UniProtKB/TrEMBL annotation:
This is NTP transferase domain-containing protein. It comes from Aurantiacibacter sediminis. It comes from the Bacteria. Keywords: Magnesium, Membrane, Transferase, Transmembrane, Transmembrane helix. The chain crosses the membrane at residues 197-216. Signal peptide: none annotated. Residues 23-145 form the MobA-like NTP transferase domain. It holds the Pfam family NTP_transf_3. The lineage of its organism: Bacteria, Pseudomonadati, Pseudomonadota, Alphaproteobacteria, Sphingomonadales.
Length: 276
């Protein structure tokens, strides 16, 4: 089972008529094409995906008018033998994922075109856990992120056992697991809509998590029971996996980390506390 390959969905779309600030600064149309350490963001992600034996095919989700613009960045990787296809995005991220899944009953891993610090080890760990469950979320702890850089991530989910940061990658294993995705299909900002959160996760579960009365593993057990699924966490030791390129601050930090991996001489950045 551990050798079973997965399909990877890469979210690379942007809203029509909205130019990402990093893209505007770099003079490119899409955030996915913003250069970092000499290559567009999406090429660093594709480098990892196409060099992994655990990936069967890659589906890049883009708005139709952006596909012709971004596709040349994918051409370098097609000769490696892993099929790479483009799929239309939707205004709702979950609808975009479901559209790329196309009703297929197989394991999918979902990530983003700005997840430039993704590693083959991190991908393989996620895949192995996904194949033993119905779905996964990937996380690392506050301390591990701060050990990489104290400004690497500012948003954490606090549980009884630790504070956790999302690592910008999740997995769904087959049609049964899509039940968990259904709760997000209404659109809008899910985590800011208390009514939708209560309907999805249950009021008591939210109270337990909000008051830090429950650990992450126990919290996921309760959520799994609510959905009738086996949803497992993948807790990374590498805190850099929680740092994606979201804004100028995380771009600078990601560039430094990525540069270290590539043998580039980039000094550790000092980030002002007020930089977003």
């Amino acid at each position: 089972m551990s050798q079973t390959p997965v399909t990877v969905i890469v979210l690379a779309a942007q809203r029509t008529g909205v130019t990402n600030p990093l893209a505007a600064r770099a003079g490119v149309s899409h955030k996915a094409l913003v250069p970092i350490c000499g290559r567009p963001l999406i090429e660093h992600v594709m480098e990892v995906l196409t060099s992994s034996a655990g990936v069967s095919d890659i589906r890049v989700v883009l708005e139709p008018e952006g596909q012709q613009i971004v596709d040349p960045a994918l051409e370098t990787f097609r000769p490696r033998g892993i099929p790479i296809t483009l799929h239309n995005s939707d205004a709702n991220i979950v609808e975009s994922v479901l559209g790329a899944i196309q009703g297929e009953d197989r394991p999918f891993i979902v990530t983003t075109a700005d997840n430039v610090l993704l590693t083959k080890q991190g991908l393989d760990q996620a895949r192995t856990t996904l194949l033993q469950s119905d779905g996964i979320i990937t996380l690392t702890t506050r301390e591990r992120v701060w050990a990489v850089h104290p400004q690497g991530q500012r948003g954490f989910y606090d549980f009884k056992d630790a504070g956790y940061a999302s690592c910008n990658l999740f997995g769904l294993n087959g049609q049964k697991s899509l039940r968990a995705a259904e709760v997000f299909r209404e659109g809008g900002q899910f985590m800011s809509n208390k009514g939708r959160m209560i309907r999805a996760f249950g009021l008591f579960n939210i109270i337990l998590m909000g008051l830090k009365l429950i650990s992450l593993p126990r919290g996921l057990q309760r959520i799994s029971k609510r959905f009738g699924l086996d949803i497992r966490p993948v807790i990374y030791e590498d805190g850099s996996l929680a740092i994606d390129v979201d804004n100028e601050r995380t771009f600078i930090i990601a560039e430094w980390i990525l540069g270290q991996r590539l043998g580039m001489d980039i000094p550790k950045p000092e980030i002002p506390a007020d930089m977003k």
